[in-house]
Each structure stands twice: as structure tokens, then as C-alpha cells.
Amino acid sequence: MDSTVKVVLRKKKREDGSYPLALRVTTGRTSTYIYLKQYLKEGEWDTASERVKKSHPNSVWLNNLILARKAEVNDQILQLATQKKDTTAAVVRKTIKRDVGIGFFAQAQIYTDQLEKNGKFNRKSADLPRINRFKEFLKGNEISFADINPGLLRQFQAYLRSKRKVTERTVVNHLVVIRTVFNQAITAGVADSKHYPFGKGKIAIKFPDSARIGLTAEEVKLLEDAELTAGQHHARNLWLISFYFAGMRVSDVLRLKWSDFQNDRLYYSMGKNLKAGSLKVPEKAMKILKQYSRDSAHNLVFPDLGRLVSLNNSNAVQSYIKTRVKSCNDYLKQIAEGLGFSKPLTMHIARHTFAQISSDKIPVNILQRLYRHSDIKTTMGYQSNFINKATDDALDAVINI
After folding, report:
1. CATH 1.10.443.10 spans which residues of the chain?
2. What interhelical angle do 217-225 and 347-358 show, nearest 10?
3. 321 partner at 20 to 30 Å CA-CA among 38, 61, 224, 330?
4. Which ranges constitute the DSSP H helices of 83-196?
5. pTM across the whole model
């Protein structure tokens, strides 16, 4: 049974006066509509030529989208005929809707919803703006996976660099999100792997090297001894607790409970990978802990999350942690300026500081246990950013002649 494909403006008027653009696939006397998730006013559409009029600001892009979608559907119909499969209206409808019925941003919505359901709020809060920047680049229009090609992604990279003025690492992070959504779409069967724009000869994703700089031992001592305001004092305490406990992540610091401390040891599971373990409580850390009340909300050591009614809602907790970390980093910036530090001071720098000072003092297998890395290669890769003695000695051996 033959099928015909026509582009039409459906007569379902929206509040803004626009109508949905759709492909009408007719098999026999039965029609199926594939909505393109694009909307036009009647005056912007040429019914006879099935094209968007040039007066529309995105006419070229939209007409290319229409041609691509129409070609996709015709290709699917041709494949059915070539394979001598049943081409009844029901079969055609099922085939084309499976292959072209979902766009990138619809799949991206599924992706971010899954992150929220899995309690990965930080990941969602980081990736959602990246998805929105891609949408902004496309002027708010939906796009099929078949249209996401290396050329388009290179244009997006140029847009991020020139218009958004972002770093190379940020550019790569945007590409990683697009790749993740694309991979999920392939797995779900809503995108064809032949359209995959990443890999050899296409878009290669490579993270640029970034400098990880921590404080020196002398700078840590200055920080420990500084006279500070109340807000700065608390921010310093959080930073030092992170440092004293082998660069503990700030999210874990803020969630510490008094019940985590037993027999002069700290027992806790890392929030990132749920790895459990214990550490000795250093005397310096003990002095800080004694500054805080044991009669606290939710049995928390630090009061930052005490305002929350419950700690059971992981999204709410992670959202509030993000707010508290920003406040803490603002105080740390003030402290760094007051002490004359030439490098940034943030909560995450506590982790880099521990790695830098420990680089020539602690064997890598012990560091693996302190960091709770599953693979020692992860520890070696992270620690390599801070091990400079061998290269420094090699340089001195040549120039000190």
C-alpha cells in the first residue's frame, strides 16, 4: 500500500495565534500526523510549496528541518517497501513514530527527570543550564537527532566561545551532556546510531588540562591563625575540617552528625560513591568541633542545614548545600584578600591543598584509602597534578651548572 507525505499547518490554534507544523503521512485513506514541535502563524506558511515564507526570521533553518524530517519519513517508508514488510497504515504509523517522534530536547527532559528521580540534584543543576544554552543557540527550536551533526556542533562550540565567553572546559562539558542525551536516545531506540556525531573523524571530546593549585603549608598556617569575623570564622572552620579529614568534600562536611564520631574516630560514608570508612580525629579538628553545640537540629555538627525541616529529601538538601557553599566561598574570598593570597580560596581548594601538601609525604596506596577511590589509577591521576619534585629536580640538574 502506497504512502504519501505532506507538510501541513494543523488547524489547532494556540493562544499566541500560531499553529503546529506537522507531517501528514497518508496510507490508503488513513492519515498519521508527526508533529515537528514548531509553530507558525498562517501568514508565515506557504501551503502550496509546503515551505516557511522568507519573511520568517528562521525560515532557512525551518525549511531545512522540514526537508530533513520529510526525507526521514520517506526513507522509512521506502525501507518497509524494500523489505517487503506489511505497509498497512498501522505499521507505517508505528514505524515512523518510533523513528522520528521524539526530538533532542524531549529526550533531554527525560534525562534530567531521571537525574532528579535518582537524587542527583547537583548533576541536574549543572547539566540543565547546558541543555538550555544549546536550545538558546537553536533559538528555542526542537531539533532531531539526525540534524545534530559535527558541523552544527562546531558552530555551537564557536557560539559558546564567542558569545558566551566560556572556558574550553565549559565547552567540553556542554558537548558531554549532548553526547549523554544522544547515547540514551540510541539505547531507547529513538535515535539511529548512524547519526552519532561523536568519535574519530567527527567531534572528539577531550578534557583540557587544568591547573589544580592548593595552599602551601605556610598559607594554611596563616589561615589557621587569622583573626576573623563571625561569618568568616565559620567558613574557615568548614574549610579546615575538610582539609584535616583528607580533603573531605564540602557536601559531606555539612552533613556530618555527632553520631558519626565514636572513640575519637570519624565514621562516615562519602556522599559521592557511598564508600564507608573511618579516620582518626586530629587534635586540631577536635578543637574546632568543640566550638559547636551537640544539642543541634538533626544531630548535625554544623548548623548550616539546621533550617531544613527534614534531611530525607535529597534534592532539597543538595539545593540548600549549594546555597551554603556559595555563602561560604564568599567569606573565603574575603579571607584570601585580607591575607594577601594570590590564589583563589574556595571550599574545593581544601581538597587540592591536602593533595598538594601530601604529594611527597604519603604513599599513593595510602592516599587511595584516604580519598576512598575505587581504582588506584584514579588516585595516581589526581595526585599527578601535585607531584612536582621529580620534574623540579630534573630541571635544576640541567640549569644549575
Report:
1. 217-358
2. 130
3. 224
4. 89-100, 104-117, 121-137, 150-162, 168-188
5. 0.57
